Amino acid sequence: MSRGFLPVTRKELEEKGIWQPDFVYISGDAYVDHPSFGAAIITRLLESQGYSVGVIAQPDWRKKESIAVFGEPRLGFLVSAGNMDSMVNHYTVAKKHRKQDAYSPGGQMGLRPDRAVTVYGNLIRQTYKDTPVILGGIEASLRRMAHYDYWSDTMKRSVLLDSGADLISYGMGEHSILQIAQALDKGIPVSSVTFVPGTVYKTKEAPKKGIVLPSYEELLASRKAYAESFRTQYENTDPYTGQVLAESYGSRGFVVQNPPAKPLTQKEMDRVYDLPYMRTSHPMYEKQGKIPAMEEIQFSITSNRGCFGGCNFCALAFHQGRIVQTRSHTSILKEAESYKEQPDFKGYIHDVGGPTADFRHPSCKKQMTKGICTNRQCLFPKPCKNLEADHEDYLELLRKLRKLPGIKKVFIRSGIRFDYVNADPSPVFLQELAKYHVSGQLRVAPEHVSDQVLYYMGKPEHQVYEEFLKKFQRANEESGKKQFVVPYLMSSHPGCTLAEAVKLAEYVRDMGFMPEQVQDFYPTPSTMSTCMYYTGIDPRTGKEVYVPKSTKEKAMQRALLQYKNPENYNLVKEALLKCGRKDLIGFDKKCLIRPRGGQKQDREKASDFKRQGTEKKDRSRKKKSIRNVHKKKTGKR
């Protein structure tokens, strides 16, 4: 295997004695050879199995010769938009252009196109008509079937059709990409590679087994049909129980999804993360500047993947799956030891985790043989009676990392599930978390305080979060530290009315500080919440759900969470009046904003409010003094 970067030029390829690569990998990200980047994992894994790979990072999509750097690959092109969906990468939830691309050198925007896998796929087809094209990565994974597209506000076809590609390798891809490579290497035509788990393919006829979903035409005609289709897809995301799903496109035939690939075993996951990554960006970017995303992940350790948390606004169920997979302690410690050889390492490990840091085993024993439950969730609305809430393995791992020579601090930043912590009967994890792994602030994600909204989010009731806060406070007191919980909060989620948004604003007021992290709900492809946003239907129940869609209401909900910002005053006032909450406009400490009537009137009212407060304090002091005199005269205490 290569001990340096994979070839990025024809010259570098030929220096290795290779005239035609087996695969050419095209990525929307800059070339970073680090296991936090999907491109690095797939290319290194193929290399470890004897396949040669050339890398074209961020080709100029305006020029078809940009994808011909290595000529035609022997087996096929592999195409990914990068670590993020290109539309999320480019646009805020308000559909405004972002100012920085964290996965490009110097944070430069404009180095990848919108809808990158579609553009790259068509770019390849302009030159190589018959060469196999396989899509992968999160953009293709979450657009593998017909889906709602927020940016165009339309129902779009499977990206397999729009890109001109032959296959999609969805999910994490290690198992499926090797099976695809082996099939192509044996001379099997890509049109006949229809048997690989974790893939999506095109065919003229419906498969003999499986479920036929509503057709694309039906989805265009009926939002209810899409809610039903989404529910069926959601119930078939498990590798053990999932069925073949087929979607008709009329004269174009069918798009067929095979069941997901099996989760990696611990030995397989160790092998993936033990590959000879350079763990940095390619030196060709030195003049352009660093890759911003590297700052946080360079010294962060992936210890698990998959998540049984089941938040409805998260795409993990569709991409990584709900079965937790882990690396061994030996593999993780080996990676931590290797950091000492890197000149930029200062002794701080930024994170040890994954989608949820404290998940180190499947939620129950049956998942690895029988799969996940299709009709219930592990933590919502209450923890399942079969849930194994145990942090012992994670604690042991963190203790080993803390003891390594040269390691000053091990942080946990990828987030913990507070409801899972509450479910653990032992307080030890929370005690050690507070004592060793937090630096002043612990970030967690309650998202909201309204149980109505939390239900649609798939999150636990608010009292569960309050219980966690008390436990964390006790853990801090025991460790002699003064640390705080910083909550992630979300506005405008399906089910959230203006009244619920005001309730959240009152909670923010009572916290005593403005939250740093406020996210307006972002309808990204293939999430339960996005389905609710588009259809107005909760696919779990088939019942209607309120959805804040207007730009004005979404702006009001977000403004309420940052009501102290003077720029938000008019929006906050309008929201409060619309909800009949005029009581929150005034000079009382419970009010969110003060009345405005010109600067002079504001000063007079503020002066009156201050005077009233002073008079109230004077009366209180006078009463207290009278009581004290009475106590002295009567001898009462």
Summarize the structure in words.
There is one protein chain. By secondary structure, the protein is α/β, with parallel strands linked by helices. It folds into 3 domains: about 10-255, Cobalamin-binding domain (Rossmann fold); about 300-440, Transcription Regulator spoIIAA (2-Layer Sandwich), CATH 3.30.750.210; about 445-595, 2-Layer Sandwich (Transcription Regulator spoIIAA). About 35% of the residues lie in helices and about 15% in strands. A 9-stranded mixed beta sheet has the order 3-1-4-5-8-9-12-11-10, with helices on both faces. The protein has a 3-stranded parallel beta sheet with strand order 20-21-22. It is globular.
Global geometry: globular
Q: In the CATH classification, which architecture of the largest domain applies?
A: 3-Layer(aba) Sandwich
Radius of gyration: 28 Å
Number of beta-strand segments: 24
Contiguous low-pLDDT stretches (5 residues minimum) are 628-637
Q: What name does the CATH topology of the largest domain carry?
A: Rossmann fold
The first-level CATH class of the largest domain is given as Alpha Beta
**What share of the residues lie within helices?**
25-40%
Total individual domains: 3
Strand order of the largest sheet: 3-1-4-5-8-9-12-11-10
Distance between the termini: 84 Å
Structural class: alpha/beta
- Approximately how much beta-strand content do the residues carry? 5-15%
